[in-house]
Amino acid sequence: MVQSAVLGFPRIGPNRELKKITESYWKGKASVDELLKVGKDIRVANWKLQKDAGVDIIPSNDFSYYDQVLDLSLLFNVVPERYTKYDLPLLDTMFAMGRGLQRKATETSKAVDVTALEMVKWFDSNYHYVRPTFSHSTEFKLNGQKPVDEYLEAKELGIQTRPVLLGPVSFLLLGKADKGSLDLEPLSLLEQLLPLYKEILSKLQAAGATEVQLDEPVLVLDLEKSAQDAIRKAYEYLGKQSGLPKITLATYFGTTLPNLDSLKNLPIGGLHFDFVRGPEQFDKVLDIVNKDQTLSVGIVDGRNIWKNNFAKSSELVNKAVAKLGSDRVVVATSSSLLHTPVDLENEPKLDPEIKDWFSFATQKVKEVVIITKNVAGEDVEAELEANAKSVATRAASKRTNDEAVQKRVASINEKLSTRLAPFAQRLAEQKKVFNLPIFPTTTIGSFPQTKDIRINRNKFVKGTISAEEYEKFINSEIESVIRFQEEVGLDVLVHGEPERNDMVQYFGEQIQGYTFTVNGWVQSYGSRYVRPPIIVGDLSRPEAMSVKESVYAQSITTKPVKGMLTGPVTCLRWSFPRDDVDQQTQALQLALALRDEVNDLEAAGIKVIQVDEPAIREGLPLRAGEERSAYLKWAAQAFRVATSGVQNKTQIHSHFCYSDLDPNHIKALDADVVSIEFSKKDDPHYIAEFKEYPNHIGLGLFDIHSPRVPSKEEFISKIENILKSYPADKFWVNPDCGLKTRDWEETRASLTNMVAAAKHFREQH
Ligand code: GLN
Ligand code: ZN
């Protein structure tokens, strides 16, 4: 019989229960028992939900109080000494590794001061994991038995589960060597690590587990031969042990084709593939599944919120059944459902027409079951019919299709995506307009978002203050930000973004084709969750979105004020995109909407316009090659479509952060000035890479995540260091990113010192 499987379920709770209890535990307001109780309640509810839905293979150990990769570091005792030396309870050690810990000494405990481990993006998702950090003194051993405990917890409820663990090769490859052990190659630890997997798996077997899921998502990356060999070696080792549960090796987020050879004839019981993100691997995969293995067909999308197309999915599963027989096929989510919001039923405000197109984690669980029943020949006629109707309605809906937008995208050509003149000529014209000093100073856009701002915004949203009152409030905020910047002596000003809740949502709310949830939270890292807006249809801008605030700001100062927009790729990446139209098309639609805004800003007298693209790097396809170069091409094109409608003398800025940026990736954007996060990147090779960058750059000079205020001397030495390999005449002076999370006092002090340092260099040049 065909079986149904879920690879993982969101663990935040339907009403963000985990966030609330964890944060109050951190503040000392909730006890450890209260925290553990909420955790258990969430796990139990998740298992029951899946059991009631009729899922055959239900995951356990997909729960985590912070991050599942961090849990594994802890389980295998991959805990750097700086965290163990305080003798904290295991749970607190884990939180210290995830988020750092600073605590004064008390009568019973010593003072603690330790920074967090590195946090990195989980593949191309917006989830971040805590990086396993290995050293020569890492002593592998089992630390507790979380997977067994959670397995038993479910078993007590009468629910048989399949424990999930990140597999050994991914665990090592996603990790890094600690400072002090930089010559250590994590993969070289495989032999020491494998016996621990064997040990935990045999404990699971002893507890009653018949099957485990080992995730090896690194199989969708470009793997070197050594890594492919490691996969073979690891699963030959584990597969040959007796007394272990059946192993299903799971891959997701892309195709495994280039690495598929390493999966051939492994002595394990099952393989899982993501056919949503990697449909092209289907035929080849069918060829390599051997007679002792089941194939888990990942077909319900774990990364997006669209309703599954039952007819299409069933067809694919049926092909697998035809070849392998029904006992060897499993219908599954493409990946863990961690990346989707918990429950569509929590969305009372969604328009019913649109709501019918969506499926959140709770609904996806049911989808897996229905597809399974369908291919097993059970009667699900009613569900199939409703599904077909919903799919057809969406495809034909006016909200999805806007012919005018489609025509406009089709008309995009070289001319529309190219500035009138090359950079050198633009620069000459801009110099005449602005007459800026060398080492011009600026900021990235936002200024401290005070409590007062949030209160007034909420009042406005709730309707307790009128639009006029709110505008008056915003204008007074803008005015004080402008006066502040004049006092501090900055050269190119910003309006401070007080009217924006979030840099994507603010524009999304004004762009037709977007919709929003009230409860659609998805874990980003630890207790931080995001609520991505959803792109439902063709995108257009009915009215100006930011002109009013920029014009007001410019009207009260003689210094240039930058218009401030979020770029097309960032709007796309930080939303749930459509699945019926390719990403390039959606980016170009956003680009056209932004182009109208850029042109309106220019027409209203704004002479400098910044279009932020902080997400451009994370959108980079996971593998090198055609798809990646195509992405870089269309991402740059989208930016140029947005920004090429202006005259030569209008100065276009852009901004990037959150990642190591390769200057080659942004050349094609042809922005006049870019600012990038740079304060922690003192590597001379990295600085030198920017030397060849043709246009002007502001290399970020201070970390906006920290309240620390750098002194004037510190700024001077930073700038001096950069000047060793970067020319003075292209040098802008600015912070790493926006200042919205800082408070005013630090902001004033840091910017004052930064401006003083710029003046110091002006006198010298
Ligand atoms: N202009 C935005 C700000 O200053 C940029 C934010 C970002 O890059 N993440 O807040
Ligand atoms: Zn930024």
Task: Look at the structure and give the mean pLDDT.
Answer: 96
Tell me what portion of residues adopts beta-strand conformation: 5-15%
Q: What helical percentage do the residues reach?
A: 40-55%
Number of separate strands: 24
The small-molecule ligands in this entry are: glutamine, zinc ion
Distance between the first and last residues' Cα: 78 Å
Biggest sheet overview: 8 strands, parallel
CA-based shape = globular
Q: List low-confidence stretches.
A: none
Secondary-structure-derived class: alpha/beta
Alpha-carbon Rg, integer? 27 Å
- The strand order across the widest sheet is 1-14-13-12-11-10-8-2
Number of helices: 27
Task: Write up what this structure looks like.
The chain has 765 residues and is of the alpha/beta class. The protein contains 27 helices and 24 strands. The strands form seven sheets. The protein has an eight-stranded parallel beta sheet with strand order 1-14-13-12-11-10-8-2. α8 (190-207) packs parallel to α9 (225-240). The termini are far apart. Bound molecules: glutamine and zinc ion (ZN). Glutamine (GLN) is lined by residues 444-446, 497, 503, 564, 612, 614, 655, 657, 737-738, 740.
